[in-house]
């Protein structure tokens, strides 16, 4: 399928638990075990990573490895923008969720004048900044980077000047300034967040489809409502973190959370979303096979990935 490009990003610099760099290989093993030809159907490219710095001392406690994450996000952004330049759909398979900031930057670099909507399917809101983070793990800051919002109202940290320098540089990757408006962000199944993140969600009235609403309305209606919520957007990016699944399905991820999606619900949801012609990019993140002796997480994730891609290929006029 020539109009879908797999972009492999093995960086796990933003995670608190090691092992997400192996997630893509775990997906490939799950693919082989399923007897699928998925990874031979599409052209792929691997973005360079700096995971070797994890063996060095971290110098930035409120934004761990931010200097190397900046380099990685620039590479992701350039690769995503180039994929659009060649008229292809970027389907990103990444390690930790900080990489999504590079994907969003790449979309905006390619389409700076288009209004971008984001559907964030995740257990976590990922809207911390170096000023609010309790951990310093940058996979919890992806959306703050995209929104260009430090949340100084809830400031609890005093980042070092060098950290501030790199943080401000990260917010300029792709294009300077906000790449996303708060009203163009939709959460699905976010259920684990700290007080500063809750402040942002309430301040901006960010829509969050939670467990009870999802089960009451059903997945097809949730997908329709999420897309309708972003009706003013020209383009939509869908980011799927495997910890959006209930923890009984997602043991092989760094931060599993109870009361989430089933595998079948995730398949139906993602497949429905990518049918919308405005969806320009899909990303899957945070598979960590070191936490999962049976590779069950990757097998579940591959089911979701294959179903979603088949729906996308059908939309793009290819053969499933």
Strands ordered across the widest β-sheet: 2-1-3-8-7-4-5-6
Figure out the total of helices.
Answer: 11
Question: Strand portion, in percent?
Answer: 5-15%
Radius of gyration: 18 Å
EC number: 3.5.3.1
Enzyme class: hydrolase
Pathway: Nitrogen metabolism; urea cycle; L-ornithine and urea from L-arginine: step 1/1
Pfam families: Arginase (PF00491)
Structure description:
This protein has helices spanning 23-33, 38-41, 66-85, 100-110, 142-147, 161-170, 195-203, 211-217, 219-229, 263-273, 296-316, and strands at 4-9, 43-47, 89-94, 116-121, 185-188, 207-209, 235-241, 279-285. With 320 residues, it is an alpha/beta fold. It has one domain (5-316): Ureohydrolase domain (Arginase, Chain A). Helix 1 crosses helix 11 (296-316). 54% of the residues are buried.
List the helices and strands and how they pair.
Layout: E1 4-9, H1 23-33, H2 38-41, E2 43-47, H3 66-85, E3 89-94, H4 100-110, E4 116-121, H5 142-147, H6 161-170, E5 185-188, H7 195-203, E6 207-209, H8 211-217, H9 219-229, E7 235-241, H10 263-273, E8 279-285, H11 296-316
Parallel strand pairs: 1-2, 1-3, 3-8, 4-5, 4-7, 5-6, 7-8
EC number: 3.5.3.1
Keywords: Arginine metabolism, Hydrolase, Manganese, Metal-binding
Pathway: Nitrogen metabolism; urea cycle; L-ornithine and urea from L-arginine: step 1/1
Q: What's the short version?
A:
By secondary structure, this protein is α/β, with parallel strands linked by helices.
Which features would summarize this protein structure in a list?
eight-stranded parallel sheet, Ureohydrolase, alpha/beta, arginine metabolism, Ureohydrolase_dom_sf, 8 strands, hydrolase, manganese, Arginase, Chain A, single chain
